[in-house]
Design goal:
It is a single chain. Helices cover 76% and strands 0% of the residues. InterPro entries: Memb_transporter_dom. Keywords: Coiled coil, Membrane, Transmembrane, Transmembrane helix. It is found in: Membrane.
């Protein structure tokens, strides 16, 4: 129990350290947007300005530039409809319901984005409840929203989070999961342990969220390098993460198939040989090497060499059907990770030891095209 609590605390502290720059951006940007709207624009209650900063910057991962556009247009739409209707029908419960319904309906017809619709509705609520009669017009509130959006972008540019820290943290989560799946599958084969194989499969099935989080993190990191002059000269380093993104996702998908077949194989008359576990472990270690080298900002040469050694290994003789399929998926993982190190697909495939004719059937999945989900 104590270990779990300690791990949870460490995870929370790690998340806080990652999000700390965004918190600082929100705090400084909100104050700055309020001052600009009050002192320079002369608006007495410019609450849309700091709100816009918070929505623009946020403390999560996403596309800030698109959010600024949706924010400004959404707020403008909500404010415009709210001002028009409140001045006509007054304020009250049924008027509030009508204002919100119309603002969100128009927003859905124009753009189904969740942020756009939410901002139109929430802005209409504020206009219909908090601000009627305060003397501020719709154009003033729209200007406040635009001011907050611009300040938010400036905060991201001048107080940037490290794009490499963001990308490295999330890719590490994916590669750690991939390594764990392969290690547990290897141990299950060695010990003929069905429970370990089931754990490997469960671990593999729970990895999609980590993959998606990495994809969002990479988009945020790319956006920061585009916005912030402080990171313009480091785009080449981030490019390694872009190169690795799709192949690592595909490697994880193949690892899921591998773990499922490993579980099935342990119930067959001819389970996979223990020697197969060694190859699984080598690929598991190569995934960790890839994680370390990318995190250090180096060309992943050590990971590539480890993967090439596995690719060149001769296949054991006398394998059953499930063992053939496991090897086929492992070969696919090797190709995917080689691509993650920067190799082209054809070059990576050419490094594999050729298969003999008897094995061609169950191993043919390696060279088949992938479907829309990325599966071969």
């Amino acid at each position: 129990m104590g270990t779990r609590l300690s791990d949870h605390v460490k995870e929370r502290l790690g998340t806080f350290s990652l999000m700390a720059p965004s918190i600082a951006q929100c705090a400084v940007g909100a104050a700055l947007a309020w001052i600009i709207a009050m002192e320079l624009l002369g608006h007495p209650r410019p609450f849309f300005a700091p709100i816009s900063v918070l929505i623009c910057v946020g403390v999560g991962l996403g596309q800030r530039l698109r959010r600024v556009a949706e924010l400004v247009v959404g707020v403008s739409l909500g404010v415009g409809i709210g001002d028009l209707l409140v001045s006509w029908i007054g304020s009250g419960a049924w008027q509030l319901a009508l204002v919100v319904a119309l603002a969100m309906a128009v927003a859905v017809l124009l753009n189904s984005g969740a942020l756009f619709v939410a901002q139109a509705g929430s802005s209409a609520v504020l206009v219909a409840t908090l601000v009627p009669g305060d003397g501020a017009g719709g154009l003033d509130r729209m200007a406040d929203a635009l001011t907050g959006g611009i300040v938010g972008i400036m905060a991201v540019a001048l107080l940037p989070a490290s794009p490499f820290t963001i990308a490295a943290k999330h890719l590490s989560g994916v590669l750690d999961a991939l390594s764990t799946v392969l290690e547990r599958a290897a141990e299950a084969i060695e010990k003929r342990d069905v429970e370990l194989a089931a754990e490997a499969l469960e671990e593999a099935r729970n990895t999609q969220e980590a993959v998606e989080e990495f994809e969002h993190a990479l988009e945020t990191a790319k956006e920061i390098t585009m916005i912030s002059p402080l990171h313009w000269h480091r785009k080449a380093r981030l490019a390694r993460y872009e190169t690795a993104a799709v192949p690592v996702d595909l490697a994880m998908r193949n690892a899921r198939v591998l773990s499922r077949r490993t579980l099935a194989s342990l119930g067959e008359a001819s389970p996979p040989p223990a020697a197969l576990a060694e190859a699984l472990r080598e690929v598991s270690e190569a995934a960790l090497l890839l994680q370390l080298e990318l995190g250090a900002g180096r060309e992943p040469t050590l990971a590539r060499q480890a993967l090439l050694a596995v690719a060149a290994r001769e296949r054991p003789d006398g394998l059953g059907f499930s063992a053939h399929v496991i090897i086929a998926q492992l070969r696919s993982v090797v190709v995917d990770l080689l691509q993650a190190t920067g190799m082209e697909h054809e070059a990576a495939t050419d490094t594999l030891t050729p298969l003999d004719e008897p094995a061609a059937g169950p191993l043919a999945t390696l060279d088949e095209p992938r479907d829309e989900a990325g599966r071969r």
